[in-house]
Amino acid sequence: MEHEIIVGIDLGTTNSEIAIVENGKVTIIKDAGHEILPSFVGISDDDEILVGEPAKNQYVLYPEKTIKSIKRKMGEENTVEMAGKSYTPQEISAIILKRLKTISENYLNKPVTKAVITVPAYFSDSQRQATREAGEIAGLEVVRMINEPTAAALSYEAENQEQKHILVYDLGGGTFDVSVVNIEDDVVEVVASHGNNKLGGDDFDQKIAEYIVKHIQEQFSVDIRESRKAMARINRAAETAKRILSDQPFAMIEEEYLHEHQGKQINLSLELAREDYEEMIEDYIDETLEAIHVALNGADLTASDIDEILLVGGSTRTPVISQRLQTEFQKQPRSEINPDLCVAAGAAIQAAIIAGEKISGSAVLVDITPYTYGTSAIGELNGEFYPHMYVPIIHKNSPLPLSKTELFFTMVDNQKIVEVQVFQGEDEDALNNIQIGEFSIEGLSRAPANSPILLKLELDLNGILNVSAIEKNTGLKKSITIDNAISRFEEDEMEQAKQRIQEIFGEKVVETTEETASNKVVVQAKALVEKAERLLDNASAEDKEDIVDMIEAINDALTAKDFAALDEPIEQLSDIIYYLES
Ligand code: AMP
Question: Could you give the 3-state DSSP secondary structure of residue 448?
Fold first, then answer.
């Protein structure tokens, strides 16, 4: 029987997504190749309604004709102005929902009339009511509204609903929420939640934009904030730089012909180091950690009671966030399900449960690396100087494919060579991990100590690991490729285990190779022939004939080295000998 169609919708402040469960698995429905619909609505020059990317694109130039972040106004009495007309927040949200509905109908080729929509855990009754009304205006019956952290937990835990305390850390573009979610007996519920609905990735962009503005002021003595057009470009460049810094230690911010000032062109070219960026946003991250403790208090729990930490929202790709959470909870936060999509995926799972559809194993399919990869460097281990400190670069359970670059430094002045060792494992002592590759980058420029060397690790869907070392100042590069990295290590691990057993028992482990196995048969056959020949004299004529046939068969097989052909005559000859001797 065909189940009725209920779609799952994440109606977000910055972005929205729509998903369904098909054949037990979640599909995020794409619109012209995009899984994400920016939550922007606008009126074009030709008085047409724009939704998503085109509305977002016109926002900076025509803010009076564009609405963003309508979710913040849901449940309020006030209306918003767009191109001279007033709209209720429900109406603007309905325009976004209508677009999502059409996207799903185009994909499914059927009408879609029912939806599960997610809302923040802190949404009041009136905000929830307004969301339901927006659905109705768009022609969607909202069969259930679920809390966003509940949806995130469902996307990770649809299959495994044992008792658990889950912390959902959700940092989007403009809002931050942290929730403690309890799973028990198939019931997933938010027990405490806290946040700041004015904190998000946009603030991070803002910090970078301020840094660029200051740089332009210093270098060109121009207050670039006066140019709306230049600021639009700066804001975009800031966001791009921020994303780059999630994977790389430096980002180049380059904007040619950004502005003209007194007949002079301003070309922007500025490098930003991750370290400096992390300092800019440190107060924001501190604030999120304080909020976590408020939520934990509210749930009457401490950090050690938390079984899982789930990362939700695009901004959680900022690596310092995982690092801080790891330090706080002594647990690696999970982020294998795309943090932009896991709320929509959870909404689709809830929708499928309501529609009575079966959900298989893990409903969200992701390719992840089961191992951590890194290198070794000089550092401190247990408070002492140690030359083989492990520095993880790609963390286990990260979604594939991925590329991560980390920064290292030369040790001495005029250093000519850097030896790079690549390891797989988790131990902070690199020597306890499995070495999977090694190479050196030679002919470095004669630079002073502490010159930057970038190490880039790229792991693809087939488990092929590319490792490159790059001298930052010259671009000198050396790479290796480790084929089939993921499965190869299992063999290596086996070898290591064998070695360990050997050391424990102090003896050489004898390997059963094909050769040793056939040797055994040959020895057995020869011994049997000798014995049979000794018994020939006392055998009856009939037995004699059988024995001679068997011996001949064995000798033929031995001469032909056809060891498989030995089995049968050996067995028969053994039987005759047994009979003669008894
Ligand atoms: P959301 O509201 O959950 O869609 O999150 C959007 C926010 O995530 C925006 O501020 C994006 O700039 C931010 N974001 C997306 N990708 C990354 C990334 N790779 N690193 C840091 N922030 C990101």
Answer: coil
| pTM of the complete model | 0.78
CATH 2.40.160.20 fits 373-490, yes or no: no
The response to whether residue 313 sits with its C-beta less than 6 Å from ligand 1 reads yes
Atom 1 of ligand 1, nearest CA residue: 172
Domain boundaries, the chain: 7-159+338-355, 373-490, 513-581
Distance CA 132, CA 125 (A): 10
CA of 239 to the centre of ligand 1 (A): 9
Pair of tokens at residue 388:
């083989």
- Domain 513-581 fold: Substrate Binding Domain Of Dnak; Chain:A; Domain 2 (1.20.1270)
Q: Is the CB of 38 under 6 A from ligand 1?
A: no
User: Of these residues, 157, 170, 203, 205, which one is catalytic?
Assistant: 170
Note if 148 is an active site residue: yes
- Name the residue of 11, 242, 405 to mutate for ligand 1: max ligand atoms within 8 A of Cβ: 242
Catalytic annotation on 260? no
71 is catalytic: yes
- Contacts by residues 211-217 (CB-CB < 8 Å, ≥ 24 positions apart): 211/272, 211/280, 212/237, 212/238, 212/253, 212/268, 212/270, 215/268, 215/270, 216/258, 216/266, 216/268
Candidates 177, 185, 68; CA nearest to 118 is: 177
Active-site position among 56, 71, 242, 456:
71
* Residue 510, token pair as written in the block: 């004898």
The answer to whether the beta carbons of residues 157 and 358 sit under 8 Å apart is no
Distance 290 CA to ligand 1 centre (A): 21
Measured in angstroms, how far is the CA atom of residue 236 from the centroid of ligand 1? 12
Interval between CA 172 and ligand 1 midpoint (Å)? 6
Q: What is the pLDDT along the chain (582 residues), one digit of tens a residue?
A: 567 899 999 999 999 999 999 989 999 999 999 999 999 999 998 999 999 999 998 887 788 999 999 999 999 999 999 999 999 999 999 999 999 999 999 999 999 999 999 999 988 999 999 999 999 999 999 999 999 999 999 999 866 667 899 999 999 998 999 999 998 877 888 999 999 988 999 999 999 999 999 999 999 999 999 998 899 899 999 999 999 999 999 999 999 999 998 888 999 999 999 999 999 999 999 999 999 999 999 999 999 999 999 999 999 999 999 999 999 999 999 999 999 999 999 999 999 999 998 887 677 777 888 889 999 999 888 888 898 999 999 998 888 899 999 999 998 999 999 999 999 999 999 999 989 899 999 999 988 999 999 999 999 987 889 999 999 999 999 999 988 676 654 556 556 655 655 565 544 434 434 455 566 677 778 878 888 888 888 788 888 888 888 899 998 888 888 888 888 888 888 888 777 776
Distances (CA, A) of 582 to 111, 534, 537, 543, 575: 86, 15, 16, 14, 11
